[in-house]
Amino acid sequence: MEIRTATLSDKPAIRDVARRSLQSSYSLSPQTITSGVEEWYGEEPLDSSLGSADRKLLVAESDGQIVGFSESTLTADRPWVTDEADEGRDALLLWLHIDPEYRGEGIGTALFEETIDRLRESGATTVQGRVLANNQDGTDFFESQGFERVGRTEIEIGGRTHVEYRYVAEPTGLEPLESGEQTVYVDHDESEGGSEAPFHIVYTDPDRENRYGYYCDNCGQLANAMDAMGRIECTDCGNRRKPTRWDAAYL
């Protein structure tokens, strides 16, 4: 088996693996799966991922066939960190798909480890992953890799609400922030993608039990307003957060 950077010629195989993986992992309608694959792995999204310096799309190839892939992204530098030893970038594992016929052969672990190594080589200090709570194989996998569960949230998939767990390797802790007369805690290990920069989860307590809102990494302001579709827009800089995608681990 070979793990390598994906190329333009791999696009049809990537879509096929994603479709087969989703069909095996969840009881979703064919239309929902087709729509999701096209939204995330259509021609334009894949071209964008393959052309981005901050995105890493790796494929696992066995006997000339693509049997799995991972997609991850590096976020902006971490200006909130004052300790030079902890300087670096955050990374998010967006997807890890393995063809159902090849699961259980160690391909997911090998692909995961190679992905983490490449993110580290690119300056990633903290790596975050996400998985739906009802994906037991996914949660077990993250925990077997030494990731720590740091939070949970609710997301909507196909009109239904699901619980999503957040995992992180080597948690860096919380950053206290004064908001009026209250101290809140920005969790730089938990983030949502934004149009300009990530939104970090903010808690009212250091135990991460009570959610407060979001912190815009683009301008350093708190953002609490969310519409019915799960969108957030920072009123200071216009950074926008879209609704959360599906979870990363389909092993």
What this model shows, in words?
α2 packs parallel to α3. The chain folds into two domains: 2-171 and 243-250, Aminopeptidase, CATH 3.40.630.30; 174-240. The longest helix has 15 residues, at 11-25. A hairpin with a 6-residue loop joins β13 (232-233) and β14 (240-241). The chain is of the alpha+beta class. The protein is globular. The protein has helices spanning 11-25, 30-41, 43-50, 107-121, 136-144; strands at residues 2-5, 55-62, 65-77, 89-98, 124-132, 148-157, 160-169, 174-179, 182-192, 199-203, 211-216, 222-223, 232-233, 240-241, 249-250. The chain starts with a strand and ends with a strand.
Please count the helical segments. 5
Radius of gyration equals 18 Å
> Tell me, what's the shape?
globular
Mean pLDDT: 81
User: CATH topology of the largest domain, which one?
Assistant: Aminopeptidase
Series of secondary-structure elements, N-terminal to C-terminal: EHHHEEEHEHEEEEEEEEEE
CATH architecture label name of the largest domain: 3-Layer(aba) Sandwich
Low-confidence stretches: 78-86
Task: Summarize this structure as a short list of keywords or feature phrases.
251 residues, alpha+beta, Aminopeptidase, 8-stranded mixed β-sheet, 5 helices
Ordered list of secondary-structure elements with their pairings:
Elements: E1 2-5, H1 11-25, H2 30-41, H3 43-50, E2 55-62, E3 65-77, E4 89-98, H4 107-121, E5 124-132, H5 136-144, E6 148-157, E7 160-169, E8 174-179, E9 182-192, E10 199-203, E11 211-216, E12 222-223, E13 232-233, E14 240-241, E15 249-250
Parallel strand pairs: 4-5, 4-15
Antiparallel strand pairs: 1-2, 2-3, 3-4, 5-7, 6-7, 8-9, 9-10, 10-11, 11-12, 13-14
Helix pairs in contact: 1-2, 2-3
